[in-house]
Specification:
This protein is mainly beta and about 90 residues long. It has two helices and four strands. Helix 2 links the parallel strand 3 and strand 4. The radius of gyration is 18 Å and the shape is extended. This is Hemocyanin F chain.
């Protein structure tokens, strides 16, 4: 299981936060199954595969204006972060 987290490195005073304290601020961005080999690995993953995002729901303004259809599929709940909120790729 691969789990991706984000956490601050510095506090509000610009002081480095010790790793043991950083863990209290960790936010899970994604988790997925992957086979890893010893050493360096490169993982490529589409944002639509994320376990913590959902497709964007249409805005109220677009629904009222008739510019978007409401998906009345009760099996989809629009739970999670919208996909456009994902953090860009980094290193």
């Amino acid at each position: 299981m691969v789990r991706i987290f984000m956490a601050p490195v510095y506090n509000e005073l610009g002081q480095k936060i010790p790793v043991n304290e950083q863990r209290r601020f960790f936010m899970e961005l994604d988790k997925f199954q992957a086979t890893l080999k010893l050493g360096q690995n490169t993982i490529t993953r589409e944002s639509t595969e994320s376990s913590v995002t959902s497709k964007a729901s249409p805005s109220f303004e677009k629904l009222v204006a008739g510019e978007a259809d409401y998906d009345s599929d009760d099996s989809y709940c629009y739970c999670g972060w919208p996909q456009y909120f994902l953090v860009p790729r980094g290193n």
